[in-house]
Amino acid sequence: MKRYALLYDHVIFNRRGVGIGPGEMASSLGECVSMLINSGETLSDRKSLGKNKAFCNIFVDCWDLVSDVNQFESDVHTVVDESVNNRIGDFCHQEIRRINGLDDDSYAYNIDDVKELYGDLSTDLGINQLLLREGVELVPSYAPIVGRALSNEYSHQGIECHNLFNSDILVPDFDALSWDEIIDLRSDKYIHAFRKVVFDLARSNPDVNEALVNKVQSDLWKLVSESKPNILKTFLTGFLGNLPSPTILNPIGIGSLIKDTYKENKLNNNYGHVFFIQGIRGSES
Fold it and tell me: Which domain of life is it from (predicted)?
């Protein structure tokens, strides 16, 4: 979930089967998500992130995005093409056999396990299709198992967020970052440059993490002789350096400042993703 929070402005949450509101298990969507992803000895501990407004603002209830909630829930399974559903069903039988170490023609397994897996996969596909039909601008991010079930239809249609930072090369221990650190990184000035690079890479690379590692390593060589830009420092230096002049500002000094700022803006545009990852590494220390 932390990877989703870095890649997207908002994460759409499907509340299917979960009571949210006064008198329910969770009083708010943020509290519900906190309860699902947060560890703690008590239920109150697990809900604690739900008190953090910045955390809660990350998540959007998919029911708030559709015109008719009841119709939306009714259409979740019917919207998926029948041939696709049949392939999902065949895959689920094979997957349960694989998990239980059974032969391909064996039926020595609990059919309820197949039904549960089928329901999860079909719902995942149906919700994304319905939200797109509603005109919601979203980037599907299917679970890896969906890619294995329907590799032709759903390869490269979204980013497999779980793969991002799954090695220690870029970020030694991403999962150790706290939610407070993730929330701070969401406001980092380089985050949009980082997201653009990731999405651009995802369009043509099945393994976005490996592609990102290669790009960062390549770009670091280009930055060997350049330092991280500090536009504010440059501006103040240029401004104060002009104070003794007869006029308020020295046109020559301002001209140099514009040139320096342009160069630093170019650095931001070209290497912002590198600086963002550097910021993540700094959060770990």
Answer: Bacteria
